[in-house]
Amino acid sequence: MLDKxxxxxxxxxxxxxxxxHLDAFGVEPIELELVHVAAAGQRSRPEARQPxxxxxxxxxxxxxxxQHIYPLxxxxxxxxxxxxxxxxxxxxxxxxxxIFA
Length: 101
Hints:
Blueprint: H1 7-11, E1 17-20, E2 30-39, E3 52-60, E4 68-74, E5 78-90, E6 93-100
Antiparallel strand pairs: 1-2, 1-4, 2-3, 3-6, 4-5, 5-6
């Protein structure tokens, strides 16, 4: 399913919350807000999808998620296993990015 997703699948959920399940780490779930959806570079071949990136903001906290594949859940999209990379803090919240190539 992940290989079929495009920016249009996420735009409608901009500024909405995605729940990150952290059961494997023995931690309660947290919410990430989808704050940015953008094209990212050129297609590798004409029939390939347009690469894009998603950026999320985490909760206000001094803790953050390490670079890892996390199960995210949204009522409209269901469950997605996304590789999230922490980009750095923004206004007391950690920014995360997922890239689709």
